[in-house]
């Protein structure tokens, strides 16, 4: 059975049993600050489990793209080494929100597996929760009784809290679960060892394929459990593992989910992947297999994350994506001998394979390919740099053990992998101190953990069952009551309070727009609201203190100055998006934005620099729309199909409901939940400040509107006045500046010529000062030159004599600099290293530096140390 059929049969089965089939949410979460990525099928439904929202249907089924690479659920380091862990995977799921419970969920799971998919019953085992005295949760007798009507009791296993009580995190919805495991071993293997003894013991062919979670509790901050308002069902079946079972394989990587990607890697590298069915393979082949598994797994995770709007970067979710991709590049580099970008070539295969069910990977194929190719090229350059740095570390190491601290610096600062360091050192008969490396790693983790540590108390609910509403499209001031509060304590922000209101005018951060600020005012006090965010369908107002009387009536007042400036920038973003598409082409799509009171930032797909002339045309187009005084046309609750039929732009990576809000300004039509001006004339004027690259195929424009434009031109005018004054108020400023530039260019040429002559004269003079020391032509001198000229002189002197060792120093702007040239034949014959010389002698000038074994330079702070550095230089050749 092909994987596409496996997915379709699952969804068809649950559709026939009254479930609404919904599309996968984006893999990158944008409206849940507690998670970077969708790490389970239930993540997009959290608000329904918590009672903060109403689902489209009480019964839902889907297949959800999931990513498990951070936090509690982290499978990254297992990927490649076994045959069933993945970074990205599909989770087939069926959901009940207060509708059916254990009986229906268990019976449907059994029917689908044994009657539709026809998995032999004798290959299946099930588990139920044994209970927990610690949590005061009893043995799940109900699940046991249902299962024993379907399967022999000797195939039912009791599971502990670790295996059979599912929790989303330290806090939140949870409950006992009942897992289904499949035994894929041969008949001979089953005769030797019972499958029951291998369940939950990490056997690669006895694996869990389906988990039925009976969500009935909420884990509170103090660790205790409370009953949820309703009983829910949350099930998840690993699509890749199910395909393995149905296709008669013993490895997920032998299924058609992965074989097309593996075939492409084989074609590119000329290496062969061996199926899991092949036994007794060589150690070399096993390394190849692991590397290929890493590559084909990781490209799926990275490609879908980019398609959903998350670019690789140095922080947050972007850093995680970059780390996954770099792990794949490194395995290719080390074990597949790929020294050029190649992973990007797999994207086409992936798009052809999964594009029918996940259209985003097909429509974003070119962008994903370009971004991955650029990231590959960048990290391969980093690896080259790391190899040079590692050579320097080796040269400075006495003995065969490199400092673990140095190895960690390579890893932490340059991203040079630990195991690649170990591999290279092993080839040279060396190693590094792993205990020191691990200690440095732990120190960094402790610092990071301490910096991001957050303690969140439980909600104190003042108004049970109240549904909070947003009135901010129509009001900036409103009478409100507080419905719930909680305290949050973090190392970064200190103690803050999250306040929920019954009907708030405060806009919560979202869609690129920052959250509103303002005040809560009662008869007796004023509480400052410093930010507004959304979490699990609740609008959270952040304050540094709580009102003395939280049950009082308040007036919520949005800071309208900030709101007005933000709305101008947001509406200008829409106008600019239209202008870019009209000018550059419809391939332009929004890939990220930031809208705050000060400026707007807009990331978009485009494969070349936007020229100055094109930027002027974009500015002109936006300002023409502003001058046209286009009225805002707002559709509050329009069916998404109708909005798209009207030509509205929908953004990839965003999660839309059946009803959406559509914003129109003339030809500009976008799905958007943000705050906008009522008429484009309110924007006043639009000015682009900068344009540049963010990643391959992604450009960024920053721009300003309104008062910020007035301030910009005022600053320009002030600067021009200062220039005029400096130039003694000439009639033609441009002519005066051009004349200055011409004079400067002539003087530079004269100085360069004088310096050349000075360096030439010094070279002739210093050549006489070489001394032979231990078979080496040695020279150590201080000269009166700039750092650049001293460097040139050192190189010229070194090249003038065979077997030369030149060490020069000079002072520029009161700061010392040193340079060392060593003839390449001496580097080889006497194991001399210019980099090591600079590191050692740099101590005397309180500086550092580096370079290559034959030439290195450094700078320092203590010019008085030059004399001692010059005196010590000779010791390297004695």
Automatic annotation (TrEMBL):
Q: What is written in the cofactor note of this entry?
A: Binds 1 zinc ion per subunit.
Q: Which Pfam families match?
A: DHHA1 (PF02272), tRNA-synt_2c (PF01411), tRNA_SAD (PF07973)
State the reactions this protein catalyses.
tRNA(Ala) + L-alanine + ATP = L-alanyl-tRNA(Ala) + AMP + diphosphate
Highest taxon in the source lineage: Bacteria
Domain named Alanyl-transfer RNA synthetases family profile: residues: 1-715
Give the EC number: 6.1.1.7
Into which EC class is this enzyme placed? ligase
* UniProt family annotation: Belongs to the class-II aminoacyl-tRNA synthetase family.
Task of the protein: Catalyzes the attachment of alanine to tRNA(Ala) in a two-step reaction: alanine is first activated by ATP to form Ala-AMP and then transferred to the acceptor end of tRNA(Ala). Also edits incorrectly charged Ser-tRNA(Ala) and Gly-tRNA(Ala) via its editing domain.
Q: Which HAMAP family match?
A: Ala_tRNA_synth_B (MF_00036_B)
Protein name (Swiss-Prot/TrEMBL): Alanine--tRNA ligase
Task: Tell me what organism the protein belongs to.
Answer: Flavobacterium flavipigmentatum
